[in-house]
Amino acid sequence: MKLLLFDLDGTLMLSGGAARRAMDRAFAELHGIADAFGAIVPDGKTDPLIFREIFADHGVEVSDEAATFGVLTRRYAHFLADEMPRADRARLMPGALPLLDHLAGLDDLSLGLLTGNFEATARIKLGRFDLNRFFPFGAFASDHAERELLVPVAVARAEAHLGRPVGLGRHVVVIGDTPRDVECALIHNATAVGVAASRYSVSDLEAAGAHHVLPNLEDIPAFMTAIKSS
After folding, report:
1. Could you give phi then psi for residue 196, rounded to 5 degrees?
2. What is the pLDDT of residue 39?
3. Which of 176, 178, 199, 174 is nearest to 187 (CA)?
4. Residues whose CB falls within 8 Å of the CB of residue 186, separated by 6 or more in sequence, listed in order
5. What CATH number has the domain spanning 2-14+92-228?
6. What are the residue ranges spanned by the domains of the chain?
7. 28-68 per-position pLDDT tens digit
8. CA 59 to chain centre
9. How far apart are CA 191 and CA 147, in angstroms?
10. Beta 13-14 vs 91-92: how paired, if at all?
11. What is the CATH architecture of 18-86?
């Protein structure tokens, strides 16, 4: 059985600026920081790492990170729930929905998430396009701040959901659009499938060590060939 773990932002969808606006609103309300997101490049980073970067960029020292991040996360989720439904530029990535529909009909694989979003905010983003139904489990930034630690969490969640062992190995396929997605797969001997539909090119993802790289998710036979050869 194949376990397919999908990244969210830049792989399946884009929030159209809703996440940035929601995060800015949370930091402004709680810490008086305007335009908190600023020039941060979020690619492949988990939300806790982005929080740390924002505080560092604005010279703010956090004495109790767990408590501070807990409050921030709740406010961020609150504002995202307001921003996401009215984000005119939010969109699915090319081919994402037809591919998920196809995969959901197959018995020899299971779908999960592996994302740098907190679970609450990931679910809000997915809800905009009714994608939660495809992902009964996953690993999130609310589990660990370091992306490379999320693969074992996702496997454990898959095992709990399926009621049988899954384990680590090449049958676990991490699908993402950044070198960080590739790297977290390689650390655990999982298969890395890069999707060059966002900021990073085919050559960028190949250089990061991806086993397979696709220009987007539109070619379902090419995607199936990639995961079956792992």
Report:
1. -90, 50
2. 83
3. 174
4. 192, 209
5. 3.40.50.1000
6. 2-14+92-228, 18-86
7. 999 999 999 888 888 889 999 999 999 999 999 999 999 99
8. 28
9. 15
10. antiparallel
11. Orthogonal Bundle (1.10)
The whole-number pLDDT of residue 40 equals: 86
pTM: 0.96
pLDDT band at 161 (very low <50, low <70, confident <90, very high): very high
The alpha-carbon radius of gyration of the chain (Å, integer) is 17
d(CA 230, CA 211): 8
Name the E strands within 104-211: 109-114, 138-139, 172-176, 191-195
CB atoms within 10 A of CB 72: 23
Under a CB-based contact definition with an 8 Å cutoff, are residues 175 and 5 in contact? yes
Which bin fits 3, alpha (ψ -120 to 50), beta or left (φ > 0)? beta
Q: What are the tokens at 22?
A: 């929601």
